[in-house]
Every structure is written in structure tokens, then in C-alpha cells.
Amino acid sequence: DSPEIKEEVLRKDDRFLTLLKDVYVESRDPPVRVKDGGGVHLPSKQKEKRLTKLGHLEGLDVNKVPKGKISLVEALTLLNNHKLQPQIWTAEKIAAEYSLELKEVNSLLEFFIPFAVQEFPKETKKAITSHKPKKLT
């Protein structure tokens, strides 16, 4: 805050200016080395993929998924198959069919259950529709 310090900071020193003019910095990047592969590109590490098993639902989903994964339509299909025919579509068969780990298939079958649509008989529908609502007084 003192005026002497401010004046000293703002004052130009000719001696330092002449020394600064003599300083010259030159910077250069090292030359870039390009490895010649002979025009052959090595493939990058890609995950192995498999074709999906969708049948007539093919247009609804992706065509290829990485091994060890399943698409949404495949998941619903295998869950429904297991629900309808659990003796045929066992966890082992699903794991082999879809390239999955058995532990993951067991978890999938345990924790995910497809919805079931239930249709009521017509007699029940009549009973429900013929019910007269209470009148408020």
C-alpha cells in the first residue's frame, strides 16, 4: 500500500530492459518418427461378437452382440422359453446357446420373471360390469 513500493514496481529499469532484449529463446519440437508398417494395419483388439438368435423378431433388435452379452429381445425370449418349458430350457442350455456364464444365467432366471397375461372368463366380466355403483346422497 505504500507509494514508494508502487513507484518501484511501476518504474522501468533500462539496464534490465537491455539485458532482456539480448535474451532469445528458440523452441523446436523433436522430429516425428513414423513407423512404416508397409501399409498393413494391425487390427485393434475387438471383442468377439456373435449373431443374435431372434427368428421372426429380427427387425426389432441389433444383429450382433458381444459374446457374454445378450440383447433385450433375446433376454425376453429366453426368459419366456424358460418359463414355458423349464425342463428343456435349463440354465445350462441357455448359457451354452447364448454364450453366457452359468452364474449370470442363474441370476437372470432368479431375479427376472416375464409378465403373465391372464384373461378372465366372460361370466366374471359380466359380474363386474353389471355392478351398480352406489349413489351418494
Automatic annotation (TrEMBL):
GO terms for biological process: mitochondrial respiratory chain complex I assembly. One of its GO terms (cellular component) is mitochondrion. InterPro entries: NDUFAF4. Signal peptide: none annotated. It comes from the Eukaryota. Belongs to the NDUFAF4 family. Binds calmodulin. Interacts with NDUFAF3. This is NADH dehydrogenase [ubiquinone] 1 alpha subcomplex assembly factor 4. The gene is Ndufaf4.
